[in-house]
Amino acid sequence: MNIKKHIPNLITLINLFCGCIAIVFISEANYEMAFYMVCLGIFFDFFDGFFARLFKVSSPLGLQLDSLADMVTSGVAPGYVMYSLFTNSAHELGTNAFIPFLGFIVTLGSCYRLANFNIDTRQTDSFIGLPTPANSLFILSLPLVLKFSDSLLLLEILTNQYVLLAITLCSAYILNAEIPLFSLKVKKFNLKDNALQIVFLLISFVLLLLFHFGAVPLIIIFYVLLSIVNNLFLKKK
Protein backbone atom coordinates (compact mmCIF):
# COMPACT_ATOMS: atom_id res chain seq x y z
CA MET A 1 0.00 0.00 0.00
CA ASN A 2 1.40 3.38 -1.10
CA ILE A 3 0.88 5.63 1.94
CA LYS A 4 2.08 8.73 0.07
CA LYS A 5 -0.86 8.39 -2.31
CA HIS A 6 -3.32 8.93 0.54
CA ILE A 7 -1.60 11.85 2.32
CA PRO A 8 -3.06 14.64 0.12
CA ASN A 9 -6.58 13.21 0.45
CA LEU A 10 -6.17 12.95 4.23
CA ILE A 11 -5.16 16.62 4.35
CA THR A 12 -8.25 17.46 2.26
CA LEU A 13 -10.44 15.60 4.75
CA ILE A 14 -8.88 17.62 7.59
CA ASN A 15 -9.94 20.74 5.68
CA LEU A 16 -13.49 19.32 5.58
CA PHE A 17 -13.32 18.53 9.31
CA CYS A 18 -12.29 22.14 10.05
CA GLY A 19 -15.25 23.36 8.00
CA CYS A 20 -17.64 21.15 9.97
CA ILE A 21 -16.30 22.49 13.27
CA ALA A 22 -16.59 26.07 11.95
CA ILE A 23 -20.30 25.47 11.22
CA VAL A 24 -20.83 24.28 14.79
CA PHE A 25 -19.18 27.45 16.10
CA ILE A 26 -21.34 29.60 13.79
CA SER A 27 -24.45 27.90 15.19
CA GLU A 28 -23.24 28.95 18.65
CA ALA A 29 -22.56 32.53 17.45
CA ASN A 30 -18.85 32.00 18.20
CA TYR A 31 -17.73 33.75 15.03
CA GLU A 32 -14.13 34.25 16.14
CA MET A 33 -13.49 30.51 16.53
CA ALA A 34 -15.42 29.87 13.30
CA PHE A 35 -13.08 32.30 11.52
CA TYR A 36 -10.00 30.54 12.90
CA MET A 37 -11.31 27.11 11.90
CA VAL A 38 -12.01 28.31 8.35
CA CYS A 39 -8.49 29.78 8.24
CA LEU A 40 -7.12 26.42 9.36
CA GLY A 41 -9.22 24.64 6.75
CA ILE A 42 -7.90 26.96 4.02
CA PHE A 43 -4.36 26.27 5.25
CA PHE A 44 -4.89 22.53 4.74
CA ASP A 45 -6.63 23.24 1.43
CA PHE A 46 -3.43 24.86 0.18
CA PHE A 47 -1.21 22.01 1.30
CA ASP A 48 -3.24 19.11 -0.10
CA GLY A 49 -2.41 20.28 -3.62
CA PHE A 50 1.17 21.01 -2.61
CA PHE A 51 1.75 17.47 -1.36
CA ALA A 52 -0.11 15.96 -4.31
CA ARG A 53 2.37 17.69 -6.64
CA LEU A 54 5.33 16.93 -4.39
CA PHE A 55 4.55 13.20 -4.26
CA LYS A 56 3.29 13.17 -7.86
CA VAL A 57 0.02 11.54 -6.80
CA SER A 58 -2.49 14.00 -8.25
CA SER A 59 -5.70 12.22 -9.20
CA PRO A 60 -9.28 12.92 -10.37
CA LEU A 61 -10.45 11.64 -6.97
CA GLY A 62 -8.31 14.22 -5.19
CA LEU A 63 -9.69 16.99 -7.39
CA GLN A 64 -13.30 16.07 -6.64
CA LEU A 65 -12.59 15.54 -2.94
CA ASP A 66 -10.96 18.96 -2.75
CA SER A 67 -14.05 20.67 -4.18
CA LEU A 68 -16.38 18.76 -1.86
CA ALA A 69 -14.33 19.80 1.18
CA ASP A 70 -14.20 23.41 -0.03
CA MET A 71 -17.97 23.33 -0.48
CA VAL A 72 -18.32 23.01 3.30
CA THR A 73 -15.44 25.20 4.51
CA SER A 74 -15.75 27.91 1.86
CA GLY A 75 -19.37 27.44 0.76
CA VAL A 76 -21.72 26.36 3.54
CA ALA A 77 -19.85 28.19 6.33
CA PRO A 78 -19.93 31.69 4.74
CA GLY A 79 -23.54 31.15 3.65
CA TYR A 80 -24.47 30.31 7.24
CA VAL A 81 -22.69 33.44 8.47
CA MET A 82 -24.66 35.60 6.02
CA TYR A 83 -27.85 33.88 7.22
CA SER A 84 -26.87 34.75 10.80
CA LEU A 85 -26.11 38.37 9.91
CA PHE A 86 -29.52 38.71 8.26
CA THR A 87 -31.17 37.14 11.31
CA ASN A 88 -29.49 39.58 13.70
CA SER A 89 -30.00 42.67 11.53
CA ALA A 90 -32.66 45.33 11.36
CA HIS A 91 -35.69 44.43 9.24
CA GLU A 92 -35.53 46.89 6.35
CA LEU A 93 -36.62 44.15 3.91
CA GLY A 94 -39.54 43.19 6.11
CA THR A 95 -40.12 40.65 8.86
CA ASN A 96 -40.64 37.74 6.46
CA ALA A 97 -38.95 34.68 8.01
CA PHE A 98 -37.63 33.74 4.57
CA ILE A 99 -35.38 36.82 4.24
CA PRO A 100 -32.38 35.45 6.23
CA PHE A 101 -32.21 32.41 3.93
CA LEU A 102 -31.12 34.76 1.14
CA GLY A 103 -27.69 34.58 2.81
CA PHE A 104 -27.29 31.10 1.36
CA ILE A 105 -27.05 32.64 -2.11
CA VAL A 106 -23.36 32.81 -1.18
CA THR A 107 -23.38 29.00 -0.85
CA LEU A 108 -25.08 28.61 -4.23
CA GLY A 109 -22.52 30.88 -5.89
CA SER A 110 -19.68 28.95 -4.24
CA CYS A 111 -21.10 25.63 -5.40
CA TYR A 112 -21.37 26.82 -9.00
CA ARG A 113 -17.82 28.18 -8.94
CA LEU A 114 -16.34 24.98 -7.50
CA ALA A 115 -18.10 22.83 -10.11
CA ASN A 116 -17.01 25.15 -12.90
CA PHE A 117 -13.43 25.31 -11.58
CA ASN A 118 -13.05 21.55 -12.04
CA ILE A 119 -13.78 21.76 -15.78
CA ASP A 120 -12.21 25.15 -16.55
CA THR A 121 -8.74 24.57 -18.01
CA ARG A 122 -7.92 28.30 -17.91
CA GLN A 123 -7.39 28.38 -14.14
CA THR A 124 -4.14 26.48 -13.78
CA ASP A 125 -1.84 29.50 -13.29
CA SER A 126 -4.34 32.18 -12.21
CA PHE A 127 -8.02 32.49 -11.31
CA ILE A 128 -11.13 33.53 -13.19
CA GLY A 129 -13.39 34.99 -10.53
CA LEU A 130 -12.71 35.17 -6.81
CA PRO A 131 -11.54 31.86 -5.26
CA THR A 132 -13.97 30.46 -2.69
CA PRO A 133 -11.42 30.57 0.20
CA ALA A 134 -10.91 34.32 -0.29
CA ASN A 135 -14.65 34.90 -0.43
CA SER A 136 -15.13 32.79 2.69
CA LEU A 137 -12.58 34.85 4.64
CA PHE A 138 -14.33 38.03 3.52
CA ILE A 139 -17.74 36.85 4.75
CA LEU A 140 -16.43 35.23 7.98
CA SER A 141 -14.67 38.47 8.91
CA LEU A 142 -17.85 40.60 8.81
CA PRO A 143 -19.27 39.59 12.23
CA LEU A 144 -15.81 40.11 13.72
CA VAL A 145 -15.66 43.61 12.28
CA LEU A 146 -19.00 44.22 14.02
CA LYS A 147 -17.74 42.74 17.28
CA PHE A 148 -14.40 44.52 17.55
CA SER A 149 -15.17 47.86 15.89
CA ASP A 150 -16.31 50.90 17.86
CA SER A 151 -17.62 52.60 14.73
CA LEU A 152 -21.36 53.30 14.86
CA LEU A 153 -21.29 53.82 11.09
CA LEU A 154 -19.93 50.31 10.51
CA LEU A 155 -22.51 48.93 12.93
CA GLU A 156 -25.29 50.66 11.02
CA ILE A 157 -23.96 49.49 7.64
CA LEU A 158 -23.41 45.84 8.55
CA THR A 159 -26.79 45.47 10.24
CA ASN A 160 -28.68 46.96 7.30
CA GLN A 161 -30.43 44.21 5.32
CA TYR A 162 -30.13 46.11 2.04
CA VAL A 163 -26.36 46.25 2.53
CA LEU A 164 -26.24 42.56 3.49
CA LEU A 165 -28.26 41.66 0.40
CA ALA A 166 -25.90 43.72 -1.77
CA ILE A 167 -22.88 41.96 -0.21
CA THR A 168 -24.54 38.57 -0.77
CA LEU A 169 -25.32 39.22 -4.43
CA CYS A 170 -21.90 40.78 -5.11
CA SER A 171 -20.25 37.79 -3.45
CA ALA A 172 -22.10 35.28 -5.66
CA TYR A 173 -21.32 37.40 -8.73
CA ILE A 174 -17.59 37.96 -8.12
CA LEU A 175 -17.10 34.24 -7.46
CA ASN A 176 -18.21 33.49 -11.02
CA ALA A 177 -17.32 36.71 -12.85
CA GLU A 178 -15.09 36.50 -15.92
CA ILE A 179 -12.43 38.58 -14.18
CA PRO A 180 -8.84 37.23 -14.24
CA LEU A 181 -7.24 37.40 -10.79
CA PHE A 182 -3.54 36.85 -10.16
CA SER A 183 -2.31 33.86 -8.19
CA LEU A 184 0.01 34.00 -5.18
CA LYS A 185 1.91 30.95 -6.39
CA VAL A 186 5.65 31.56 -6.82
CA LYS A 187 7.02 29.99 -10.00
CA LYS A 188 10.28 31.84 -10.55
CA PHE A 189 12.36 33.10 -7.67
CA ASN A 190 13.05 36.63 -8.89
CA LEU A 191 11.72 40.08 -8.07
CA LYS A 192 10.45 40.96 -11.54
CA ASP A 193 8.10 37.99 -11.92
CA ASN A 194 6.74 38.31 -8.38
CA ALA A 195 6.51 42.10 -8.01
CA LEU A 196 2.70 42.10 -8.00
CA GLN A 197 2.50 39.38 -5.35
CA ILE A 198 5.11 41.11 -3.18
CA VAL A 199 3.28 44.45 -3.32
CA PHE A 200 0.02 42.73 -2.42
CA LEU A 201 1.53 40.83 0.52
CA LEU A 202 3.32 43.90 1.91
CA ILE A 203 0.23 46.10 1.79
CA SER A 204 -1.87 43.26 3.24
CA PHE A 205 0.59 42.94 6.13
CA VAL A 206 0.37 46.68 6.85
CA LEU A 207 -3.44 46.56 6.74
CA LEU A 208 -3.47 43.66 9.20
CA LEU A 209 -1.25 45.57 11.61
CA LEU A 210 -3.48 48.62 11.39
CA PHE A 211 -6.97 47.15 11.32
CA HIS A 212 -6.70 43.53 12.56
CA PHE A 213 -9.95 41.67 11.63
CA GLY A 214 -11.18 44.78 9.83
CA ALA A 215 -8.30 44.38 7.39
CA VAL A 216 -9.61 41.09 5.97
CA PRO A 217 -12.44 42.52 3.81
CA LEU A 218 -10.15 45.39 2.79
CA ILE A 219 -7.47 42.92 1.68
CA ILE A 220 -9.94 40.90 -0.41
CA ILE A 221 -11.30 44.06 -2.06
CA PHE A 222 -7.74 45.27 -2.66
CA TYR A 223 -6.86 41.90 -4.24
CA VAL A 224 -9.72 42.19 -6.74
CA LEU A 225 -8.98 45.84 -7.56
CA LEU A 226 -5.25 45.19 -7.95
CA SER A 227 -6.01 42.32 -10.32
CA ILE A 228 -8.29 44.54 -12.42
CA VAL A 229 -5.63 47.27 -12.62
CA ASN A 230 -3.03 44.65 -13.54
CA ASN A 231 -5.30 43.32 -16.29
CA LEU A 232 -5.73 46.82 -17.74
CA PHE A 233 -1.96 47.33 -17.63
CA LEU A 234 -1.34 44.03 -19.44
CA LYS A 235 -3.86 44.94 -22.16
CA LYS A 236 -2.00 48.17 -22.87
CA LYS A 237 1.28 46.34 -23.45
Write the layout of secondary structure elements.
Layout: H1 3-27, H2 31-54, H3 60-87, H4 105-119, E1 127-128, H5 132-148, H6 152-158, H7 161-176, E2 180-181, H8 195-211, H9 215-236
Antiparallel strand pairs: 1-2
Report strand order across the widest sheet.
1-2
Which range does the strand content fall in? under 5%
Order of SSEs, N→C? HHHHEHHHEHH
Number of helices: 9
How would you name the oligomeric state of the polypeptide chains in this document?
A: single chain
Mean residue pLDDT: 89
Query: Major sheet: size, sense and barrel closure?
Result: 2 strands, antiparallel
Uncertain parts: none
Structural class by sheet pairing and helices: mainly alpha
Helix percentage range: over 70%
GO biological process, one term: phospholipid biosynthetic process
Organism: Flavobacterium panici
GO molecular function: phosphotransferase activity, for other substituted phosphate groups
Main location: membrane
Structure, explained:
The chain is mainly alpha-helical. The chain is 72% helix and 2% strand. Strands 1-2 form a two-stranded antiparallel ribbon. Helix 1 (3-27) runs parallel beside helix 3. It is globular. The termini are far apart. The model has no long low-confidence stretch (mean pLDDT 89). Keywords: Lipid biosynthesis, Lipid metabolism, Membrane, Phospholipid biosynthesis, Phospholipid metabolism, Transferase, Transmembrane, Transmembrane helix. It is found in: Membrane. This is Phosphatidylserine synthase.
